[in-house]
Design a protein that fits this description.
mainly alpha, 3-stranded antiparallel β-sheet, about 190 residues, 9 helices
C-alpha cells in the first residue's frame, strides 16, 4: 500500500468483516477509538452496529487523519486523494484494490477481504461460531458456518496425533467365555 489511508482501509476490511459499502459509509463520529471499533449501517437490518477493528488499523487510521486532516463528524471518513477531497466511492476503492492486486500478482475483491476476516474468525479455536455470527451480523448461523474450513496442515497434525496414540485395549465384562468373545468380535 502506498499510503496510510489504503493501509488502514484494508486492515479495517480484513479485521472487521464489514461489507464494502458499510465500511465506506463510516463517518468520523462512527469511530470508537478506545474500543477499537467502527459503527456501520448494517446492510440487512439498516441498524447502526459496531464492528471490531485491529489496533494496527486504528494506528494507520490515526496516521491517515493526521496527514490528511479531520473530516466533519458526519462526513465520510474515507476521502479521495486525487482532485478535490470527496467521499471515497465503491468504484474508487475497487481501483485501490486493483492497484494492489497488480503489485502483488493477486486477484482479490473487496468481498474476498470479508471472506478472509470471516474465515480467520471462524477457524479461531477461541471463538464460537455464534460469536463470529454476531461480528458478521449474519441473520442465519448456516451462513456463518460456510466460513469454517479445514486446513490440510491441521488435519495432518491431528491424524499424526491419532496414529501415534496407543490403541485402546478392548475389554469385555466378566462372565463371557474368551471363545465366545472371539467368535462375535474377531480376534
Amino acid at each position: 500500500m502506498t499510503c496510510d489511508r489504503d493501509r488502514s482501509l484494508l486492515l479495517c476490511y480484513v479485521t472487521s468483516g464489514a461489507r464494502a459499502s458499510e465500511l465506506l459509509g463510516v463517518a468520523l463520529g462512527d469511530v470508537d477509538w478506545a474500543g477499537a471499533r467502527l459503527y456501520v449501517i448494517s446492510k440487512g437490518t439498516r441498524l447502526r452496529q459496531a464492528v471490531p477493528i485491529s489496533s494496527e488499523a486504528i494506528r494507520y487510521l490515526t496516521r491517515y487523519l493526521d496527514a490528511d486532516g479531520l473530516p466533519g463528524p458526519e462526513e465520510p471518513l474515507w476521502r479521495t486523494r486525487r482532485g478535490g477531497s470527496r467521499p471515497l466511492s465503491y468504484w474508487a476503492m475497487r481501483r485501490v484494490l486493483q492497484r494492489t492486486n497488480e503489485k502483488l500478482g493477486t486477484n482479490w475483491s473487496l468481498h474476498d477481504l470479508r471472506h478472509t476476516a470471516s474465515t480467520r474468525m471462524a477457524n479461531d479455536p477461541e471463538m464460537t461460531l455464534r460469536e463470529v455470527q454476531a461480528v458478521l451480523r449474519h441473520a442465519n448461523i448456516e451462513t456463518t458456518g460456510r466460513y469454517v474450513t479445514v486446513r490440510v496442515e491441521d488435519m495432518f497434525d491431528k491424524l499424526q496425533e491419532h496414529y501415534n496414540r496407543p490403541r485402546p485395549r478392548r475389554t469385555f465384562p466378566a462372565g463371557y467365555a474368551e471363545a465366545d468373545v472371539k467368535a462375535v468380535f474377531g480376534g
